[in-house]
Amino acid sequence: MNQIEHYLIKQISIFSENRPGRLAAIAQAMQEERINILAFSIAEADGFGVVRALVDHSERAYHKLTDMGFMVSFTDVIAVRMRDEPGGLYEIARILGDANINIEYAYAYTGKDAAVLILRVNNARDAIATLLKRNVTLMESSFFK
Amino acid sequence: MFWNRKMETLKGDELTRLQLKRLSWTIAQASKVPFYRKRLNNAGITPSDVRSIDDIGKLPFTVKGDLREGYPFGFFSVPLNRVIRIHTTSGTTGKPTVVGYTRRDLENWSELIARNMTMIGLKEGDVFQNMVNYGLFTGGLGFHYGAEKIGLTVIPSATGNTKRQIEMINDFGVTSIHCTPSYALHIAEVAEEIGVELPTLKFGIFGAEAWSEAMRRELERRLKLTAFDSYGLSEMYGPGVAFECPEGDGLHIWHDMYLVEIIDPATGERLGEGESGEMVITPLVKEAMPLIRYRTGDITKLMADGCACGRGQKIGRITGRSDDMLVIRGINVFPSQIEHVLRSLPEVGEQFMVYIDRIKYLDEMTIEVEMKKEYFHGELEDLSKIQHRITDALKDVLGLRTNVRLVEPGSLPRFEGKARRVIDRRESKL
């Protein structure tokens, strides 16, 4: 079971108004702290949004952004290594769907080593167990440090 | 044309005698209300101390806040079984102001509306579309019954669905409309957009918002009608208190039913003819809810006698407010109400800002709020839920759709001293 915890990755979620310069402010803060953003996405609603990011030093990012006045929160996500070829996403989505695990949102990046899918699901631990059982490669949280 | 020539043109001693008689009756009627009994006792005034109209100056003022204290029925001077209608209007905080009417009150009110509509030339055979809210707002039912009284063909179309409103104006041959001036401009705009003319319209009655002469020209040009200003407030029955005659220079305030004074809002001192100040009204015939020297908050002036139409006392068009009340799409809003709603929601932080804009002739209110950090769990959906909860809570209290914007903590201005949380960006508030 302990192994599962290794695969829980802390995403930082940042509340941001939807207006020019807000993302720049966040990105500049990360640069100042020498924090590397490994993956990120923006979700937007009516006049505001949530910037979601995987960074290499999440605690430091959290403190820096909080000190700047941002509303920041940690969210557990999982990172799945996909086959970087047609059907790669389908495979992952099908496994989770069959296990009745809901994907609340997702974003992906094609890194140096592999295509990685970041998933926020309704039950991260079940998702990890399910995917591991099906021999899907998950990235450990240490990968992002 | 006159509905009640005798009353409308009553002059001199005859008028003064009637006013004094009715003022004494009003004071006696008010004395049945514990609030007034106490007020008058404390001031050492008995009804017999009021021997002339000028003696009214000895009486204390009544303010909107007093009415709030009396929520719900504290200002009724008759038992509830004699009150046959209740309306409410926004109060200065969470609770609305309640107004009640006896059967005689409703008859008086209809009489006023009948006078107003007859005065501008409406009569049997005219088709009247009443495009205001028909619920607790007094503008709907008030005009409705007055219009029926003189035999107009009344279409209680209420608000909304502008294209349907336009269709009815044409299909039913509507000659007269009643709505807020901003809604009338919206109608004009939509009609132009869909390429429809409104050739049957002749009379436009516009009220519930203060509006300018520039607005009048715009309305008359685009809708090809004659625009009349209608003034009223729920505390004085509703619309119909004062109304423009065809001379188009000031509004006749019905002298047999209302005594009007203009005061300096800062000192309470009475001002003379032609001087601008806050209007104070003492109703002379209100039965269920008599009021004494009620401060309306509206800024106007008394005009010289001698209108060519032969009627009496006129007031100038309303030029503003002496308090912070806002009129948004015809609905009265106090910033304190907004504050009250926001303070009751745990997710909302201490700071907020209110912006008012006029977009396509309609007022839009935007409220920026900061969220408390502890309620942020990183999920967009939670934020949207909070946004909707705030919008719904405001709608419940204000009766108004607003745009609620969640902003970053710390981003709203902090005020030292008096907070200026309301920014009215409408080009002309009138």
Write up this protein:
The complex is a heterodimer of chains A (145) and B (430). By secondary structure, chain A is α+β, with helices and mostly antiparallel strands. Chain A folds into two domains: 9-75, 2-Layer Sandwich (VC0802-like), CATH 3.30.2130; 79-137, VC0802-like (2-Layer Sandwich). Chain A contains five helices and six strands; from the N terminus they run H-E-H-E-E-H-E-H-E-E-H. Chain A has a six-stranded antiparallel sheet, sandwiched between helices. In chain A, strand 2 and strand 3 (48-55) form a beta hairpin. Chain A starts with a helix and ends in a 12-residue tail after the last helix. Chain B is α/β, with parallel strands linked by helices. Chain B has two domains: 69-322, Rossmann fold (3-Layer(aba) Sandwich); 331-424, 2-Layer Sandwich (GMP Synthetase, Chain A, domain 3). Chain B has a nine-stranded mixed sheet with strand order 4-3-5-6-7-8-9-14-13. Chain B has a four-stranded antiparallel sheet with strand order 10-11-12-15. Chain B is globular. The mean pLDDT of chain B is 92. Chains A and B meet through strand 1, strand 3 and strand 4 of A and helix 11 and strand 20 of B.
Write down the Rg of chain A: 16 Å
Q: Care to count the β-strands of chain B?
A: 21
What shape does the CA trace of chain A take?
globular
Strand order of the largest sheet of chain A: 2-3-1-4-6-5
